[in-house]
Amino acid sequence: MSINEAVRIVRERCRVVLLCLLLGLLGAAAAVALIPREYAADVPLYVSLVGRVETSDQAYQANQLAKARVASYAPLMRDERITQAVINRLQLPMTAEQLAKHITVTVAPDAIVMVETVTDTSPQRAAAIANAAAEEFVGLVTQLEQPIGPAPAPAPALGAARQPTPEPTQIRPRIIRQATPSLIPVSPNVPFSVALGAALGLLIGLGAAFVRNARDTSVRDPERLQVLTSAAVLATIPADRAAGNSPITLDQSPESARAEAYRTLRTNLRFHHHGAPWNTGAKVVVVTSAGIGEGKSVTACNLARALATGSRVILIDANLRHPQVETYLGLEPGPGLTTVLAGNLGWPFARRRLNDVALEVLSSGPVGPRLGELLIWRRMDELLQELRRCYDFVIIDSPALLPVSDAAAVAARADGVILVVRYGATTEEQVAAAVEALRAVSAPVLGTVLNMAPAPNPRRRRVDTYAEPPSPHLPLLMMNPPNPANPVSPANPVTSANPVTPVSPANPVSPLVPPANPANAVSPVSPLVPPDRRIPLEPAGNVGGDPPDGVDGSSPDGAAR
Question: Per DSSP, what are the bridge partners of residue 174?
């Protein structure tokens, strides 16, 4: 595992790591609050040879003897003879063994100073125990240690001169200073406890993150998704908290990274036709997903909205289980796909065009428990054939593949399928099952879309973006579109037979809007049906009401009973 992959795992599982870190800090705080406070008092003692020495050799020998004695005095401080005497002296409510646990002796190497430390829940009692134990220790050592030197000479005879005798020496500890109460507790150690709790919580969180990542089979890597589906990843859509309130990102936030990702999806779809020109490739495209709630409807709406720039596009809501296109686009409920397939209304009358963009929508129409069977009728094939002739792209939003079979039925009639996979939610098993369901109906997978992926870290991937251009002061000119019957070539150059009309105050041109042609105007209701053969918008019968006769009793080819 590389360092970058480890960092990615920690970033993706940061909630687990932070939760464990918080629990570690809370545990440390609880331990600090519950552990009783303890105070310490210490008494330093100096061990030396008491007596007179004549030479430096004797002084050196005395110092070495004192060092040897200090090491053996340390366990004597906790002896029962001292602890019991302290208990009897201070009237302590504890036994000698319990008091010995509160006494510690510290001796530095090659030193003749020993430090006695006593801990207790009361600072005054800790100081009293330390002073009493030090005094009892000095008295006990004085009794145990024998004088060093020659024995004193016998008393001289009466009248004889008294000869001076050398003074005997003795090793004896002496108290350097008395213990005083300290109001600063030594236990619990708050900084150490907090640091220990944070370290343990962090370690547990990191371990849990890596274990969870090892057990997680959800799709998080575009390369892994490409291996599972054997299809290219057309786009990676970053997650955006504002997408719930404004799902059509191209209209609400056209300069955002999410909108640019949808434009990338549009570009890749147009030119991803295995080398074929875009106008001869896939025209009827189904947008589906393996499970529910992976963002296929939002992806279909934004893809259709992006393709509508420069192409004739119609968006069909074939999700008769839970239609969402009307909600996302802000359309009122009305006739739609079910109305057309039931034979109650022609599709030119059921379609609707958005006011601000060149996008036409054929919503789901009235839905019911059994209306999903309309998708397998022959009228669906006829409808798609007509739409192929009239539009450059037909984008179909279908239900999820695994819960119901509606998506597979629609995908079998389309030119290709775009499979939407939600980052961190769709598992590899679900993706494999969805691809297998599409292969069962011979539906080609044009590519996949990794939806709701985390936004890239701007510090790691800093990419300069173009600044927003200022508003133009002059209106943009609309060039005449090329005529396929008269293409531009070196043998047939563009001449001045059809010059571009210059912009002038007397002849203004609306920006981005081609001039209308009253002689060849398109009817907003039915551009393909003559006026004498138009079907009424509200036929007597069942638009929005009970299913028509053909839904429950007619044959799958749509013939009347």
Answer: 46
